[in-house]
User: What shape does this take?
Amino acid sequence: MNKIYKSISHLYKKYSLYLSVFIFFWAIFALTNSGVDSSEGLFHYEVAVQIVKHGQLGFATQPEGIFQVAPNGRFYAGHEIGNTLFMLPVAFVNVMLENFASKFVSLETIGKAQQFLLSFQAGIYSSITATLFFALLRVGFNQPVKLSFIATILLTLTTFFWTYSRNLFDGVLCTTLLTFSFFSLVRYRQTKKDVFIISCFLALGFAFITRISMILAILVAFTYLLIYRRASIAKKLSEFMLGGITLIPFIIWQLWYNFLRTGIIYKSPVQTSVYAGNNALDGNILIGLSGLLFSPGKSIFIYAPLLLISIFIFHRFYRQYPKEGIYIAALTIIWFLLHARLRSWYGAAGWGPRHLITILPIMFIPCGVSLGYIWQQISLRITTICLAGFGFILGLCSIISNWHFRMMYAVEKNIADDKNFIWELSNSQAIDMLHAGAENIIRMITKAPIIVIKNTYSEANEYASSTLNLWSNSFIYAGIPWFAVVILLIPLFVLIYLSARNILIFSEQSNTFEGRKRVII
Assistant: This one.
């Protein structure tokens, strides 16, 4: 028993900094969660429930959404399985909740409770991503604790990362898996331990069976292994073989799952004509690139403005870390080129250019690693503060309001077409959201009527989207006493305070240690 306690104590001391980072961001994302999810992730969750309840991937009758009939006559999700696999724990909890609570409360109430629990899943993904990004800066690039923490805050709260912390779009899970894979690659470069190659390609394997486009990340990871150091051909082959062997189970699964759903082992349903409106690779690549880079409604620099700093500072980053610079540049370029070629290059219904959320932390690395240098340059410091300020305000507005609700509102006003919502500044998605955030605040102060959209949203959803789109506000609107909601909120604020304090203590201890080391030297 004493050995177990010592082992746990040792692990806690070793990883308590990263646990504090995770808790800090989890509490923030939980605090700013809307309590509901309207993304396609709900369909992935439906498959998870089917697996838990019946042990089956398919359905006898066609559910609503992304489900298609297969050659065997059953109906399967058109999307890949990865997001579903990570939802199995919450699906299991929700099924147990239903079995127990159905004796006492209505199925409608149980359904709302289940959706509430599910809505925190994306926040967990995002908290893990934030922790991995912090660890990447701290361990992979040897940045101070404080600067690593500040850079992680900038990534999470001044970009559309924050908004997607409450959205179960499967690209959010891929963000976590990709960040973990790159962290593992950098750790392998530092330690030469094979376990990091295995962990890298395990993450990329799960990412591949979540979104097929993650094959690009796999190719770039192999490229990194090829160039990260000079070694014998035998050593390079052994690294490639280890990565390839790790991927084999995922490739076999994907081929089998493709065959089950389409009858063709190399064709997923997302590659069929059903999804051609969004996924067909016959779009105008010049329009796609110009839209992803420069359009008022979908430019990546609107939704992650500090990426401009990453570009400006990239030459300096590349001089310090040439192999990592090649990885970041290669992944970014081929990711942009692929998605710019899509017929729906901006990702159809989404907040900003949603396909780019997956590589956002990777693109953000040059800015994060160079934060100390940036702060020493007055012009760069002022520019960074201004860009971060704009990103935070836009992100906050998207938290106050509801991007999906605003899109439906734009449809009702006949301004949701590409010409208006993407290319025209005054009606663009970002400007509309800034208006929405300000209008919601004014509406709460003046008690003005909420926005009502015909035959689309419940009254509760319209109220939250027109005032403050947080679960705490929705609870009060549903009749839960305000003091009960405050009791639920207090632990989150306490966690934010305690974890932030722990991180700052680690930072001071680290600075003290570095100072003593310099004196000794």
